[in-house]
Amino acid sequence: MHRALVVEDQNLMRLALMAELRAGLRDCYVAGAQTLPMAKQLLDQDQFDLVITDPGLPGFDPTSRHDRLHVVETIIEAAPGAAHLVVTGSDDEDEALACRLLGARAYICKTGLSQGELPLVLKQIDRGEFSIQLSDLDTAKLDLRFPTLTPREDEILAMMMHRNTGTKRRAVFQEMATKAGINAASAERYYKQARAKLLKLGRLPEGL
Amino acid sequence: MHRALVVEDQNLMRLALMAELRAGLRDCYVAGAQTLPMAKQLLDQDQFDLVITDPGLPGFDPTSRHDRLHVVETIIEAAPGAAHLVVTGSDDEDEALACRLLGARAYICKTGLSQGELPLVLKQIDRGEFSIQLSDLDTAKLDLRFPTLTPREDEILAMMMHRNTGTKRRAVFQEMATKAGINAASAERYYKQARAKLLKLGRLPEGL
DNA sequence: CGCAATGGGGATGGCATCATCCCCTTTTGT
DNA sequence: ACAAAAGGGGATGATGCCATCCCCATTGCG
């Protein structure tokens, strides 16, 4: 049983991180805290295996190096046995190093963290590595979401729109198939279904 | 058909905002952009009814008043016909006013924005009001998420744990019933189911 | 031409969730 | 002691998504 804690003041981000953990960990429960006092309270009450901390908490100056590291240090000292991940909105290699020296196992920039990538980070730190992920805008992509699509349909559409020019649809079906552990024909089915829905709505993006 | 755009560089936050829009709007499609150039490209290609912008985009200094307002101004000028919401991580009443003068219809702090609250903001601006929502930590609550629970079970558990002391469970069932448009007995059923699952896991929080 | 890729579907079983109905026992409050 | 509240379930149909299998027509290319 894994016990994880997410310390982050932005509600939607905290919920998103908690959802990522839920999806990535089996047999776990995930707690969330919005402030440093609440985090300390939880860490005193209970033992955690994994703690994700955003150093920019309310009551501290998010632009102050000292304040940010103080938050990280406080959390790490309150749970010395846990694996600590620092997740931040800003992007600073020096701060990453400082966090590492404080005992953190990973330093991740929110800008470079996409859905489903947290498990990769966890695998990395399981191997004993320090995982550092700075902002990555080379892979910047457009997003499109259509409410009437199911998750699978959304997924294959996103992959299709983000594919490199020249890549055949078949290849994308195969890619999704291996990634999702399903049949390539099923991926194709989802794509067709999604396409049909968008056609009916008259909202088919260019490049189909 | 509503067309919405979310301009935000943090992937998880952008997806969360897009999900909020999907849940809150009927017959809409939602696009996302990670950078200002991508946002401009989308705004030039297509017309949007609603644009949500985080002024702290890559390539700009998130602590610089000038840079932040420049982002907001650029976006608003690129889509003068849309309703513009500014969503930010920092908390600044002066900046809110400046955004209002630039033509924004709402200024929302991420710290104060919870799941399901975006529709309330949209209703407000539909009435022609300027919606301002600064950080709100009075209502700071603990979060707990258990992976084995269904959304409904999670929902009623969260409401139950966040209820004011003295409130009867019955009242919470009724509250969820009216909010979700279901039967109070069903809410009670979800609560019981959730409780049973946590009991089996030996992870029942205090206060049941 | 033949073949691969694409576009456009129908039908299926399995499964989880939703929302509702019903039953019962125990605890708590007044 | 009596009623209200709470704990602990079983069973149900409806619905939607997942994953798979099948069919067909059209297009492009060597």
UniProtKB/TrEMBL annotation, chains A, B:
Keywords: Phosphoprotein. Residues 3-125 form the Response regulatory domain. PANTHER family: HTH-TYPE TRANSCRIPTIONAL REGULATOR YHJB-RELATED. The keyword Oxidoreductase does not apply. InterPro entries: CheY-like_superfamily, EvgA-like, Sig_transdc_resp-reg_receiver. Transmembrane segments: none annotated. The modification 4-aspartylphosphate is found at D54. One of its GO terms (biological process) is phosphorelay signal transduction system. This is Response regulator transcription factor. The keyword Phosphoprotein applies. It comes from Neoaquamicrobium microcysteis.
